């Protein structure tokens, strides 16, 4: 295997090792995928100012996200079906995050359950992401289970009341576990590592749901579940209700508009994530990095502003921090590492991003992430 130097190297390897339907699930957006692509390409427009003859000793990327110490202002984003990229995927990614010193966020739609991740990480704190569902009793039980697992923050996703259409998932017949069609069997036969891993684990279904909801003993289709349970009537009263039930640190994910950012501040949340769901919901929406400065300007003095979408390098992280984000999240970047090499791949993704972040910060003449602002960017190249 050649030397891995970028997230792109991990993506190429993951594409070889992960069955098509699960690789495509991670590596796709809705409709024409224009927002998915813009999330990544809009970072490239932003240029750095290189500085020289600055003492660069004693550099640090250490920071805080919602009051928690982090090795760098990066968290692992909640991603559904992570345990289908690699056997026990959520447990392995959580271990890698713990070792590195960054938060891991478990999705409601994970394969490994809250309890399995807690057990697999010796009870160390992680974050939990919640969707608002019609079954309020089930939401309450999820919140109670997250508390019991010592989760230290709750991420409430607001931009998936209904599911955006992702053409690849429809064409591939996405399901977990995968349906044993001739096409799927032929494809999986070319992924022996993945198959062996899956044979060796009991985690092959939506672990937070199957066995925890009345009448749900088998749930192969993510789209069927979301169509029946995700609540299109979600409103800010529900956010207040969740905040009261949870009682701890609350992060609201999916904010793209100034008006919604102001409503998020009024809700009493601790942080917001500027996010378009990785370009997987409203195709044609603005990229996250383009939206970020405007939202920071509007509410950044009142609430902690984070962002996700399109981050593939430490340079992307630094640009987001320069534009006012107090934290960033990686989804596909860690999934590529997981699909490529399991826990070691997630660790590699974090190492690559950290190294790029540290070196780029130094080339811009800064020795601490706390010193970073728009002064490191070339005027006229970044959104305002």
Keywords, please?
10% strand, TIM Barrel, alpha/beta, 42% helix, two-stranded antiparallel sheet, 384 residues, globular
Secondary structure elements and their pairing?
Layout: H1 7-17, H2 20-26, H3 34-44, E1 63-65, E2 68-70, E3 74-76, H4 89-100, E4 105-106, H5 114-120, E5 127-130, H6 136-148, E6 153-157, H7 167-172, H8 182-189, H9 192-199, H10 222-229, H11 236-246, E7 250-255, H12 258-266, E8 271-274, H13 288-299, E9 304-308, H14 314-322, E10 327-330, H15 332-341, H16 343-363
Parallel strand pairs: 3-10, 4-5, 5-6, 6-7, 7-8, 8-9, 9-10
Antiparallel strand pairs: 1-2
Could you walk me through the main structural features you see in this protein, from its secondary elements to its overall organization?
By secondary structure, this protein is of the alpha/beta class. The protein has a single domain (7-373), classed as Aldolase class I (TIM Barrel, Alpha-Beta Barrel). Helices cover 42% and strands 10% of the residues. The protein is built from 16 helices and 10 strands. Strands 3-10-9-8-7-6-5-4 form an 8-stranded parallel β-sheet. Helix 1 packs across helix 15 (332-341), helix 4 crosses helix 5 (114-120) and helix 15 packs across helix 16. It starts with 6 loop residues before the first helix and ends in a 21-residue tail after the last helix. The relative contact order is 0.21.
